[in-house]
Amino acid sequence: MLLTTKAIFTLIVLFFIALELNFLWLFGGMPSMKEARNPKLSVPTQVLTEDLQVLGQFYLENRNPVDFSEIDSLTIDALIATEDIRFYQHNGLDLRSLPGMFFSTLTGDTRGGSTINQQAVKNIYKTRRDRSQGLLGYIPVVRTIIAKLKEWDVAIKMDFFFTKNEILALYLNAVDFGDTTYGIKLASKHFFSKEPKDLSLHESALLIGILKGTSYYSPKRHPERALDRRNVVLSQMLRYGKINQEQYDKALQQPLGLKLTEVVKEHSKAPYFRTMLRPVLEKWCDENGYNLYTDGLKVYTTINYTMQEMAEKAVEEHLVELQKLFVAEQGSYKFWFDRQIAKEKAEYKREHPKEKELPLMPAEKTLNSLIENSEVYKRLKSSGLNDSQIRVKMAEPHATRILTHRGEKEITISAIDSIKTVAQFLQAGLLSVDASNMHVKAWVGGSNFDYFKYDHVAQAKRQVGSAFKPIVYASAIENGIDKCTLVVDEPFSIKTVINGESANWEPKNSSGKFSYAPMPMRTALGRSVNSVAIRMLQSVGVDKVIETAKKLGISSNLDANLSLALGTSDISLEELARAYVPFVNLGQGGDLVILTKIENKEGEVVYESETKMEQLLEPHTAYEMSFLLRGSVEVGGGTSRRLYSYGVAEGNEIGGKTGTTNDYRDGWFMGITPGLVTGVWVGCEDNRIHFTNANGQGGRAALPIFGRYMKAVYADKNTQYKKGKFPKPEDYTESVYCYEPEVISDSLQFVMDSLARDSARLLIDPIQNRRLDSIRISL
């Protein structure tokens, strides 16, 4: 018995109700009435600097929506003539095209017969994705038919809620044009470097033609196919009267005419900063109901675009010069690994003259590990070659592109030598912070983000060497030791435990010499005298210095022994920069501030940061510390005297502290200027690879980056940072300078006589033979 028309209609209604409700999980989810009324395009989040320059974007689909009025009419005509000529006559579903649609679906063409409404639904609501499928979605043809039916349903709803022009704009903003480019605005910019309203006829036809198959008709990869498809679109426009014969003939003669602009690969500034920012923003979005990748937020950061450029340029320019010195240091070996392996073998032979066969040296083991973990080695191994065959293959020179500090260049080199080259590639970190509000102005986490993702500002923790000494001195002043204290620079010995064995620790100055004279704190810090710093730490107490360090923002574990004064603890550049801020801001500091505000897609402010400064040091202590740190520039023999060569010291109160770790593994410079604290670290990713001469010292490896950077900052009239003086507490009435007695012939009696005349000054007792069993030194 045939079903009546009423029964058929009832079944259809029941079916669509079941479709809407996902009855028995058969059909999968579909857009609700609310979602159909308010479709949400995936819009990237923009990251902006304080001077409103775009640093980058976070997105799943890279697009920038435009209004209908911003789209050229020829683009609209091309779309309608090619995709849906009856667009203005139907209500979202074109009944005339249904037979063709069913035939296309059965033959595998998922676009055939779809109206612009349906295609908009597919692109906006992703109805073809797995998570939109129900149990019936596991049946291939049924899966496509159900997706089509859902698109019918929502397409009709959209036609009810939106005007035809609004639907066209939604579609052109949503659709994928290939090359990870979504929407007509970015497609116009990417392929023709134009705005959508400025496209010519043949350009509009090409973009619409791409939509039939973004890979197959890609004008970049398959220009002949793209040209043929463009001409099909032009013929459709002529057929339906959207253009005349003259327009058609003229457009047909035009070449593809691509003027590509890269809109996906970011060559923007501060990539390490943006990478650090991502999890911070993800957490905030999760807590506040936003999606970082789709909700079109605008994130305003504290980064100053100009200063970031200056910082990146300073790092690049100095590393170019320093890398040459590092390569030159290897001599005829050229590579650090080759030189080190030869050195280790020679030492082993001296120690074991009777042994004929040498074991693998430590440097050889490290190099082997790098080789075996390389992509080249893994690829050759998967092809069936054994280890010996792989190494022969990897030793063969071939043309390739290799990284330099100026970018990539084409050279002929073997894969093994390429690995050695990358291993000895110098890295740097730079962090510049406004001391008045803790705003981060520049953040350089490494030498090249495309190759090295590890951030040497926030992620890396390295020994800081003498850059830790100012914290010892700050703790001393904070705990009552006068800034004019004299300490005798002399050798001493401590009975302790070194590497598990009883031994004497006899710390040396970096010069290997002692003056045997009493030395003012400013001179001792300025010249980075180890003996004075250790004795100052001993006088204050390790626990109190660690307490000061924690208060200043250092959260890393610190060695609770006298080696702390020499910076043997691993600390990040981010922590150390925070710790220096109170020295130039009357004792105030706090957490780093990286964001100022966040706006939603409608331009409403949904987050605004607050500056929370804390009094971490007494104002007098902070001011005196700025005076002591100036000693490295102003005192004869100071480790920062080189700053005069950059023109940043004249007429300016500027100070800093170098830091150099054992065997020149790390070079540091922490610079302070009125209103700004900037820290720099330089070294290799693997600290086993390092300079073996003074070029690895903080004063040569890191200080020049600070000097170049500050020279550029001061030269730019648009930056707010000028030469000047450090802030002084209003109630600080005494002279910051100290009376320095002239010591003749190292006469300690002369010093004692001068101290008798000035009781405010101390002479810290020697610590000869003092036993400190808790100390552990790795030498």
What does this structure look like?
The chain is an alpha+beta fold and 779 residues long. Among the domains are: 5-30 and 63-263, Biosynthetic peptidoglycan transglycosylase-like (Penicillin binding protein transpeptidase fold); 427-596 and 612-757, Beta-lactamase, CATH 3.40.710. The protein has 27 helices and 20 strands. The strands form 7 sheets. A 5-stranded mixed beta sheet has the order 2-1-3-15-16, with helices on one face. Strands 7-6-20-19-18 form a 5-stranded antiparallel beta sheet, with helices on both faces. The protein has a two-stranded antiparallel sheet with strand order 4-5. Helix 5 (116-125) packs across helix 7. The chain is elongated and about 110 Å long. The protein starts with a helix and ends in a 22-residue tail after the last helix. 41% of the residues are buried. The chain crosses the membrane at residues 7-28. Residues 54-237 form the Glycosyl transferase family domain. It holds the Pfam family Transgly. In the C-terminal section; belongs to the transpeptidase family. In the N-terminal section; belongs to the glycosyltransferase 51 family. GO terms for molecular function: penicillin binding; peptidoglycan glycosyltransferase activity; serine-type D-Ala-D-Ala carboxypeptidase activity.
